[in-house]
Design goal:
Glyco_trans_1; 2 domains; Rossmann fold; 6-stranded parallel beta sheet
Length: 401
């Protein structure tokens, strides 16, 4: 089966959930190609090299500056003025056309029927496919992850996805919450199917929890240093716990625009030495950090611009190992973490609530912690196993219309 993956950036180190699908299809013997809107420089996941994915990807290289965009529009207009005008139809496609994605990507996917299946990640790339070809004999799917359901709609308006909803593309929100949202925006019930992201259970050996915490209680948070990750809440909780005499330290794995602000916060709260910012680490280093951590934190919240999480893969990885996890009642996270069953959930954007839950977990009996650990492993195995999920997706791709 010839399959095209359409993504926004590649190879994005933080998007292992997309990589897991690509490698799963390759392992099953399918012919995979990738179309990415832009290239990401920096550290890459080992599987990118192992599977030779850079040889399978084509970059559209969408320009960012207005000047560069005008040059590209002019070039296209000279070659094909009628099609250029069609793909820059503001009245039909809204402000999305100013990104130039439809105009610049068309030559790479002008005839989508050359593929047996096309899998787009993020609503904007599904919208791109629908603008270029509303109907196709090819099985086409688009995954909705988070910001594409919240911030993207906030930016472009609730009508932005109408061309997509009117097309033959199947919508695959990664949580029940996002399924509800896309239906509210106008998607037809029969075109929406919830399809979780998942993790490779073969890569995660369950841990044996110690009967009591180490002398220093290691808190760990993994994710981009952005507002929605609630890292400032975790830092505040660390300071509160230290003031109460708890020997806690917080390690933050990731990078992003909030780094300097967060470092300044840690210093102002007197926990500069107890809050460690590592930047992005290799997958091996991340797994080693998860192994050493006492408690995994993910205090996610809604950002001011409306941006929200999907279901963080870092939480799936921690739970797959049977680690103790504390997160928030945010987005699709409660579909993964069930309060007092396989983890704890706090009210989002509330440092006192997070502090209380960390205290509760520290004081929890060994019997309850061990039970929670077993439940964590089982939950991921039952609902977030990438092998099972990939097999289901392949079966959908192979269904003939």
């Amino acid at each position: 089966m010839k399959v095209l993956f359409v993504v926004s950036t590649f190879p994005a180190l933080s998007e292992t959930f997309i990589l897991n699908q690509m490698t799963g299809f390759l392992d099953a013997g399918h012919d995979v190609t990738i179309l990415a809107m832009s290239k990401v420089n920096g550290k890459a996941h080992p599987d990118v090299v192992r599977y030779g994915l850079m040889d399978k990807v084509t970059f559209v290289n969408v320009p960012k500056s207005i000047g560069q965009k005008l040059v590209r529009v002019t070039q296209h207009f000279v070659k094909n003025p009628i099609r250029t005008v069609q793909l820059l139809n503001y009245w039909r496609y809204g402000k999305f056309i100013f990104s130039l994605r439809p105009l610049l990507a068309e030559k790479y996917i002008k005839n989508q029927s050359t593929y047996d299946a096309i899998i787009a990640h993020y609503g904007s790339n599904g919208l791109l496919l629908s603008i270029l070809e509303s109907e196709s004999v090819t099985n086409r799917f688009v995954f909705f992850h988070g910001n594409d359901v919240t911030g993207f709609v906030e930016r472009f308006g609730s009508e932005i996805y109408q061309p997509l909803f009117q097309s033959t593309i199947t919508l695959l929100p990664i949580s029940r919450l996002w399924a509800k949202k896309v239906k509210e925006y106008g998607a037809a019930e029969h075109r929406v199917r919830v399809h979780h992201m998942g993790v490779d259970l073969n890569k995660f050996t369950p841990v044996t929890l110690p009967s009591q915490f180490e002398e220093t209680i290691q808190l760990l948070l993994i994710g981009r240093l952005t507002e929605k990750k609630g890292i400032d809440i975790a830092i505040s909780s660390t300071a509160r716990l230290r003031s109460k005499g708890y020997p806690v330290e917080l390690t933050v794995i990731g990078d992003g625009e909030k780094k300097q602000v967060l470092m300044a916060q840690a210093e102002a709260l007197g926990v500069k030495k107890q809050v460690h910012f590592t930047g992005w680490l290799t997958q091996t280093e991340v797994q080693q950090s998860i192994q050493k951590a006492s408690i995994i934190l993910q205090p996610s919240r809604v950002a001011e611009n409306g941006d929200m999480e999907g279901i963080p893969v870092s939480l799936m990885e921690a739970l797959a190992k049977g680690k103790l996890v504390i997160s928030t009642y945010h987005s699709g996270i409660p579909e993964l973490v069930e309060h007092e069953y396989n983890g704890l959930l706090a009210v989002e954007n509330d440092a006192m609530a997070l502090t209380h839950h960390i205290e509760s977990m520290i004081r929890m009996t060994d019997t309850n912690r061990q039970r929670m650990s077993r439940n964590a492993i089982q939950k991921v195995a039952d609902e977030f196993n990438i092998e099972t999920l990939n097999q289901r997706l392949m079966e959908m791709c192979e269904v003939k219309g």
